[in-house]
Amino acid sequence: MGRQRTINDQRFWSSPKMSRCTIEDRFALFYLLTCPASNIIGCYAITPRIAAAEVGWDTESQFLPVLRRLAEGGFIKYDADTCFVWVRIWWEHHHPKVAMGPTLCKKTMKQIRAMPTSWTMDYLDDLLTQLHEYRDPKDSKDPGKILIDEFSLGSDRTSDPEPSDRVSTPYQSPIDTSDGNSNDNNTCKSINTTTNSTTSKNETLYFPSKLKEQELLIVKKQLEKITTTEAQDILDEMAAAMNHNKIEKGAIQWLSGVIKNHELGIFKLTSAGKGIKQERTQLHFTEETYINRLPTDNDSNGLRKVSSVIANLSYSKSC
Fold first, then answer.
1. By CB atoms within 10 Å of each CB, which of 256, 266, 269, 276 scores lowest?
2. In whole angstroms, what is the distance from residue 164 CA to residue 315 CA?
3. CA atoms within 13 A on the CB side of 290
4. Residue ranges covered by each domain of the chain
5. Residue 29 to residue 168: CA distance in whole angstroms
6. Would you give the DSSP letter of residue 267?
7. With contact defined as beta carbons under 8 Å apart, do 93 and 169 qualify?
8. Which of 60-69, 79-88, 148-157, 186-195 has the lowest mean pLDDT?
9. Which tens digit of pLDDT belongs to each residue from 185-224?
């Protein structure tokens, strides 16, 4: 059965960085993001002759020159000696916290150790930066610390590197669990799948991750008397406004104005808010479906593991 790959359409087709790419560049990047050789971390070995055949190109006159051009543009790294490629835009289409989650952590470490050693430190620095960008301050588990401990990065490195100029996308993409032809289904830690049947409304809502802790408490309080569906619409609109820097006088003041409009019956989602809502809904469904298809460690009959790894790029799930 084929593996599922997800491309963030806006970051692939509409980002300023991609605007300087030729059609061949885009096609090659699309291939590298979805090809059979790709793995969890976006750094893997290819066979140029086979890769060229899969896209219908000549190896020497088309495929390799495009790889070199993408490397010069900073989209990838390519090691001609080992034929390893590092897709440097990988985390624009996949969520790093999923790669560091209990189900995939062991495979992630294995794949990092397999890459050319000259890339390892740069790769770890980049991954730590991505993890910090999407870190939920309320999350007691720091996946970056796993990297620091695993690779003995030392006390001079922290899991809180300086934030990059990369803009968060409003959702997460599913990530593949395959490790080449390996059937290793071991996990780093066990997953507690126990749920509480008395889930409160706040526990079903997704809050913009850019909210500070004190702001989050106030937002929850102000949304208490609003239905779950309408409250989530307001939160989707808030996430869109934050992503587009439309909140000038603070999130709480912005929310007060929106709630007044809601009480007057004139609040409506903008097109940006609708986009956030659609992406959140689609990716939530995709993630739940994808994770539920994973086999348990000792399950030879194909029983599925029920777990949740929703950790939206612009949202944090209230717990």
1. 266
2. 19
3. 22
4. 9-150, 201-317
5. 20
6. -
7. no
8. 186-195
9. 333 333 233 233 334 666 678 888 888 888 899 999 999 8
